[in-house]
Amino acid sequence: MLNLGAILSTPVIDDDIIYFADSNGYVYALRLE
Questions:
Q1: How many domains in the chain?
Q2: ∠ CA 2-4-12 to the nearest 5 degrees?
Q3: Rg of the Cα trace of the chain?
Q4: Are 8 and 23 in contact (CB under 8 A)?
Q5: CB 3.0 to 4.6 Å from 23: which of 3, 5, 29, 32, for a disulfide?
Q6: How far is CA 20 from CA 3, 5, 15, 31, in A?
Q7: Does position 2 have pLDDT exceeding 70, yes or no?
Q8: Range of the domain at 24
Q9: Residue 28 in contact with residue 17, Cβ under 8 Å?
Q10: pLDDT tens across 18-29, in order?
Q11: Which helix (DSSP H) or strand (DSSP E) does residue 12 occupy?
Q12: Within a 13 Å sphere around the CA of 13, how many CA atoms are in the beta-carbon half?
C-alpha cells in the first residue's frame, strides 16, 4: 500500500512505467500491466 501525499506532477509514461512525484518529496515508478 502506498502512503501518498498530494500528487504534484503530471504523470509521465515511458516503457510501460508511470512516474510521478508527491507532496512528501518522493518520486514513484509503477509498472503498467
A1: 1
A2: 95
A3: 10
A4: yes
A5: 5
A6: 14, 11, 14, 12
A7: no
A8: 1-33
A9: no
A10: 999 988 888 999
A11: strand 12-14
A12: 4
**29 SS3 class:** strand
Task: For the beta carbon of residue 17, count every other beta carbon within 10 angstroms.
Answer: 12
Number of residues that make up the chain? 33
Write down the pTM of the prediction.
Answer: 0.71
Burial of 22 (0-12, 13-18, 19+ CB in 10 A): middle
* Residue 16 identity (one-letter amino acid): D
Cβ contacts of 29 within 8 Å, gap of 6 or more? 17, 18, 19
Please give the average per-residue pLDDT across 4-26, as a whole number.
Answer: 88
